Amino acid sequence: MQVIGTSHISTYPLRSQIPVALGACILIAMVWKIGGHPLIPVILAALPIAGFMALSNAFLVVLGFIIFSFFRIHEVFPFLMPFKLPMLLALASFMALGWNIFSGKIQLFWTREMSVFIAFFTIVVLGALFATNRAVAFESLTGTYMKIAVIVLAIIWMTRSIREFRLASFLICLSGILVACFALYNSVNGIGLVEGTRVTIGRDIGSMLGDPNDLALVLLFPAAFGLSYVMSSNIKWYDRALGLFTIALMFAAILATQSRGGLLGILAVVGVFIWYKIPSKTLFFTVGILGVLVLYSVADISERASGGAHEIGIDESAMGRIYAWKAAFWMAVHNPLTGVGISNFVYNYWEYSDFWDGKNHAVHSTWFGVLAETGFFGLGLFITLIVMSIRNMMRLIEKLKDFPEHPYLCAMAMALLAGLAGFCASGTFLTMGFIWPFYIMFGLSLALCRIVSQIENPPTTLSPQPHLSH
Q1: What pLDDT, on the 0 to 100 scale, is given for residue 440?
Q2: Which is nearest to 449 in space by CA: 109, 97, 119?
Q3: 223, 85: one domain
Q4: Which residue from 175, 234, 353, 413 has the least number of CB within 10 angstroms?
Q5: CA distance 98 to 100
């Protein structure tokens, strides 16, 4: 793909834009001068200014949408729900992306990773078309996954400076702190507990965070970023303090969820940093084994029976997962190219399972979930995306050793590598193939590759068509 030139949104002076904006505000307010809710004229009058700010701060709008969608801030603070902030931020993000592409303000580029992602997205769409329950498949496709696909491209093309990476890291840590504080508050006060001990958030309003496994998954993401601040060199003291505070709260809150997948994810995240910090690999594995034993005893999950999910298909035992995974395999055998369709595993369980106890079970595995719902070809593409992302981050960590003046880029690379490791480990027990975590890391990893490429090759000599994988 050819690079689109860079031009400014507008060449008109600010003094010419202000009268136009004020005139639009007055015109809209006059339309609503009588009747309706008294705040409607005020809200509509502010829309042009809000739109102008969205176009001028496009990355911040996209980042806000990611924060609300992934961390479910509006469900942590239920009084925000009537304002429909995720929907408004989604519309603003799409508008900002479209306008910045149309105006040529952002520079478009394409990579092999993006081609693989589009191929996987195509498989998901085809799977929805041939799904057993098309209504459920298209609800997931249009409600979540299409937004993910657009935002992935927005992250890749609109994250263009070190300042934006630092802002993303800061807001991810801050959001994680907010969620963890509410989780620990609920744990101490016995609010919304599952099985009497496992903490949740917003269970009474049907929040995604009402599942302790999903809550642990959300907390894994900021854990990687917090630990990167603590373990990286040449980081400012206040960022290191933020990282230390973040990782302490994430550990405590994940332990309170008693999620097996969450504990595996934490071990993987910490393991990545220890791997780079400890030269002796014998010592590394010794520390790893001790860490597993300590976490297992501290978390007190030995007596747990269920997966803790509040959706249809709660697992009563480890055998329940094995039956579900076998069913996923047979779904892929009978539908090798497209699978049974996104979000269709539960609705096909009874037909493919060797064991039927009168209820459908959830798959509780990212890998088997993707296998069942996109087939063998889809799983191959999904794993390819993960492998390419991990390889890119490992290369960047080595490259950035030659650029000690950019410690925050190295911290971001370490955070993304640790986050990917945590995703892979926790994916054994958590179903997250079609939700935000991996795709945010995938988008940020490609944007980071672009920034490092520009550092290695200044813009005057930068090839217009970079290839990040070899």
Answers
A1: 94
A2: 109
A3: no
A4: 234
A5: 6
Q: Which two tokens stand for residue 312?
A: 């249809």
Closest CA relative to residue 285, chosen from 274, 294, 295: 274
**Last residue of one domain, picked from the residues 48, 81, 103:** 103
Indicate whether 97 and 182 sit together in one domain: no
193 DSSP assignment: -
Domain boundary among 103, 132, 166: 103
Residue 226 burial by Cβ neighbours in a 10 Å radius (0-12, 13-18, 19+) = buried
Whether 292 is in a domain gets the answer yes
Distances (CA, A) of 343 to 77, 121, 151, 370: 27, 14, 20, 10
- Taking only the tens place, the pLDDT of each residue in 172-230 is 999 999 999 999 999 999 999 988 889 999 998 988 899 998 999 899 999 999 999 99
Asked if 343 and 435 count as a contact pair (C-beta separation under 8 A), the reply is no
Tokens of 58: 């496009």
- 304 DSSP assignment: -
**Residue 195 · residue 304 · CB < 8 Å:** yes
358 and 394 share a domain? yes
Residues whose CB falls within 8 Å of the CB of residue 183, separated by 6 or more in sequence, listed in order? 199, 200, 201, 215, 219, 253, 256, 257
Phi, psi of 297 (to 5 degrees): -75, -40
The tally of domains found in the chain comes to: 2
CA pair distance 470, 464, nearest whole angstrom: 17
The boundaries of the domain holding residue 119 are 112-456
| 469 in any annotated domain | no
* Burial readout 339-371 (b: 16 or more C-beta within 10 A, e: otherwise): bbbbbbbbbbbeebbeeeeeebbbbbbbbbbbb
- Considering the domain architecture, whether residues 98 and 127 belong to the same structural domain is answered as no
Give the residue from 111, 120, 423 showing the smallest Cα distance to 261.
Answer: 423
Question: Both 22 and 150 in a single domain?
Answer: no
CB contact at 8 A, 221 and 437: yes
Examine residue 291 and state whether it is found in any structural domain, yes or no.
Answer: yes
For residue range 215-227, what is the model confidence (pLDDT) as tens digits? 998 999 999 999 9
**What is the chain's percent helix, strand, coil content, to nearest 5?**
70, 0, 30
The average confidence (pLDDT) of the chain is: 83
Residue at 427 is within a domain: yes
For residues 119 and 63, state if they share a domain: no
Distance of CA 108 to CAs 2, 98, 332, 430, Å?
Answer: 7, 12, 36, 34
| pTM, full prediction | 0.83
- Residue whose pair of structure tokens reads 């949740």 in the numeric block: 200
Name the token pair of 323.
Answer: 């039956």
User: Can you give the length of the chain in residues?
Assistant: 470
